[in-house]
Design goal:
The structure holds 2 protein chains of 2 kinds. Helix content of chain A is about 55%, strand content about 10%. Chain A is built from 13 helices and 10 strands. The longest helix of chain A has about 30 residues. In chain B, helix 2 packs antiparallel against helix 7. The structure holds iron/sulfur cluster (SF4) (2 copies). The site of one iron/sulfur cluster (SF4) has 12 residues of chain A, from helix 12.
């Protein structure tokens, strides 16, 4: 029988999986079916873009595509769980557009005007389970956040070592399995088992040693929504056949858990260039770039979705850092017209340039020695 | 001492406050020139290519002052940093970064003040500490701020009263745009001039009751809105929309906040002819005028219908 409430929500990097799991753990299953959102495809984006304002930052359009697909599958409760700098406003306009299209649904936003409010969120989600106890809600919420934290650690580890794998695709397989396993977590002890299992698995992956002549590339920017519909290891994969190490920052736990506390540290690191915070992760981008330079990285890739103001704010400052510290930075913007071939070509060219620069530097050093 | 103010973005939001503050401290104020082709091109040259046109023009104005600073002995260029007015009330993040971007782009001496209630930096504190940094006594800085603030309030009152008087006209047209857009020589001026040349009475939505006493009228159009300057524009729409023949929205390419807010509002206003203009750096005026002409045609036709009913 058709359930009373069918819940749909948008993809947000890989985080939609723990979100799905969280919802599934708290709703009354007699009453509610939670839909797993489709992976974002070119079609999702095109459909979303059609009904969105032209110049809104792109995650808005991706969300719209997902909502439309959810509604097609019968969703009558839509959830906005995102938290970028404009997400607070996304919600109101998205609701209006979808209603103007003739849809009837209940829209629930995780965020309030003033940010996350646990008590209010609990009251809102009670509609999906009238018997939900506050303690249970908090338990599941905490579990979801811890899951995300662990998942982030694993993903970071895999990303940072992706190009060191000896057997291709091992990490891809582990990631797929891991995401599936997340759906089985509903108690703390299961989470602990999950963690132990994957720590072991990850340790078993054979990695080659880092060489001195490996090119080191860092990725900074607004990362977790920009690269849909490409896979989460997209850039790492593109660089797979080259001798290089890739490091990237920004994860959701970083966003929701550590932000306030890490803000001071970030501003301090970036203080040689900026005095004030300029929105979302803009200053993080600056701080991370400086950190990568300290660690002798050869080049940096800056990524953002089209229309992302905080990252646009960061660009003139990155350009100055690039000049002063003599480090190449490539700027990639993702929008609904971005193709993987276009990005591939640019990444390849960037790599070649870094390689040439590094070889030349070596040559210079040798020459200097001759003159000594 | 001489301070230069770029005639763009934030300066237009407080046309009296900043200037008056400096003048009361005995500091001379000079402005950048009106937006011209050179300023526009410099702005494009110095900005990230993807930022909005208003932001680019701002950098063009700063460049104008930087160029003139030695010859005209401008000691500092003033770039306020404005972010939060209350926990829920902020401005577009492009304003957050103006000072830091300029500092990193140009070789000149900049001064700033920081209004950020999220870090307990109130407007009062911001101005007073600016005065002190410029070498003035605490009491003198306080006086200058209080008086400048009062002058700004009086200016607002005058602007508002003038606008209300103008409303008696039956050729009213409402322009919804940030002041730095509607009054800019390159962006809004051609539109305003066209309307005036065609005998329309231009009503500015940013000049409304809300600038005298804070107002929540905007909530009837958008309850989640947290951008201060967009709230103000919506307050204006609430106040004037039933007294005008049509509404023109002007924004710049690509403006995130306006794109969202205007889209929402346009969906909610029924029964009024609306024109939504988005101006970019290559705006061929031919295209603009065609759109304005056909909009005016619609307004005139509407007139016939309304007149017929009467
Ligand atoms: S961080 Fe960027 S992409 Fe995300 S909501 Fe803000 S402007 Fe949009
Ligand atoms: S509100 Fe729009 S026009 Fe104004 S600075 Fe922000 S992006 Fe630019």
């Amino acid at each position: 029988m058709r359930k009373k409430y069918i819940v749909g929500f948008p993809v947000l990097g890989n985080y939609y999986i723990p979100i799905y799991n969280f919802l599934n753990n708290i709703v009354d299953k007699e009453l509610v079916e939670v839909l797993m959102p489709n992976k974002i495809t070119d079609e999702t984006i095109v459909n979303g873009a059609k009904v969105s304002p032209d110049f809104v930052c792109v995650p808005f359009k991706y969300n719209m595509g997902n909502y439309i697909e959810a509604i097609e599958k019968g969703a009558n409760v839509l959830i906005q769980a995102g938290g970028g700098c404009r997400y607070g406003y996304y919600f109101e306009l998205q609701e209006q557009i979808l209603k103007d299209m003739g849809n009837d649904f209940i829209f629930i936003s995780f965020l309030e005007e003033e940010g996350l409010n646990i008590k209010k969120l609990y009251n809102k989600l009670k509609i999906l389970n009238p018997n939900l106890r506050f303690s249970e809600f908090c338990y599941q919420g905490g579990l979801a956040v811890s899951t995300v934290k662990i998942m982030d650690d694993f993903e970071t580890y895999m990303r940072n070592n992706y190009n060191l794998q000896i057997n291709e695709n091992e990490f891809d397989k582990i990631e797929e399995e891991m995401l599936n396993d997340i759906l089985k977590i509903n108690t703390l002890s299961k989470l602990v088992k999950f963690k132990n299992k994957y720590v072991k698995k990850l340790k078993q992956v054979n990695l080659r040693k880092i060489n001195n002549d490996d090119i080191k590339i860092g990725i900074v920017g607004e990362l977790f929504t920009s690269m849909e519909p490409f896979s989460s290891f997209f850039i790492e994969k593109e660089l797979l056949n080259y001798k290089c190490i890739v490091k990237r920052y920004t994860t959701v736990t970083y966003l929701i858990l550590q932000k306030g506390f890490a803000k001071k540290k970030v501003m301090k690191k970036a203080s040689g260039y900026i005095d004030y915070h300029f929105g979302a992760d803009g200053p993080e981008t600056i701080a991370h770039t400086l950190e990568l330079i300290d660690k002798n990285y050869d080049g940096i890739i800056h990524i953002k979705p089209f229309g992302c103001s905080p990252e646009i704010n960061a660009m003139p400052i990155l350009q100055k850092i690039s000049r002063e510290k003599n480090i190449p930075i490539m700027y990639l913007t993702f929008d609904e017209q971005t193709t993987s071939t276009g990005i591939k070509t640019r990444i390849e060219a960037f790599y070649d340039m870094l390689k040439m620069k590094k070889d030349q530097n070596y040559a210079n050093i040798k020459e200097e020695k001759v003159y000594e | 001492m001489k301070v230069g103010l770029p005639k763009a973005m934030i300066t237009y939001e407080y046309p009296v406050l900043y200037t008056r503050f400096f003048e009361l401290l005995g500091i001379e104020v000079v402005f950048s020139e009106d937006t011209n082709t050179k300023i526009l091109n410099d702005g494009i040259k110095y900005s990230a290519s993807e930022t909005c046109l208003a932001n680019k023009i701002y950098l063009g104005h700063v460049a104008n002052l930087v160029e003139r600073k030695d010859k005209e002995k401008i000691d500092y260029i003033f770039i306020p940093r404005v972010a939060f007015f209350d926990k829920k009330e902020t401005v577009c993040v492009k304003f957050y970064a103006l000072y830091d971007i300029c500092k990193n782009t140009f070789d000149a001496k900049f001064i700033t003040l920081n209004v950020d209630y999220s870090c307990k930096e109130t407007e009062f504190k911001a101005f007073v500490s600016l005065g002190i940094r410029l070498g003035f006594k605490f009491s003198k800085s306080v006086m200058a701020y209080v008086r400048a603030k009062k002058a700004q309030d009086e200016y607002n009152k005058k602007e508002y009263n003038t606008q209300v008087k103008k409303l008696l006209n039956n050729k009213n047209i409402l322009v919804v745009a940030h002041p730095y857009i509607e009054h800019d020589k390159y962006i809004g001026y051609p539109v305003i001039k066209y309307l005036k040349d065609n005998k329309y009475n231009v009503i500015y939505s940013d000049v409304n009751k809300g600038i005298l006493k804070s107002s929540d009228e905007y909530k009837k159009l958008s309850k989640m809105l947290y951008w201060k300057y967009n709230k103000n524009l919506l307050n204006g729409i609430m106040e004037y929309s039933d007294k005008v023949k049509g509404i023109i929205f002007i924004s710049t390419f690509p403006c995130g906040p306006d794109a969202m807010v205007n889209d929402l509002v346009i969906r909610k206003i029924k029964n009024k002819p609306i024109l939504n203009l988005v101006i970019d750096e290559q705006d061929a005026s031919a295209g603009l005028y065609t759109r304005l002409e056909s909009f005016v045609d619609i307004l005139e036709q509407n007139n016939i219908v309304v007149g017929g009913n009467v």
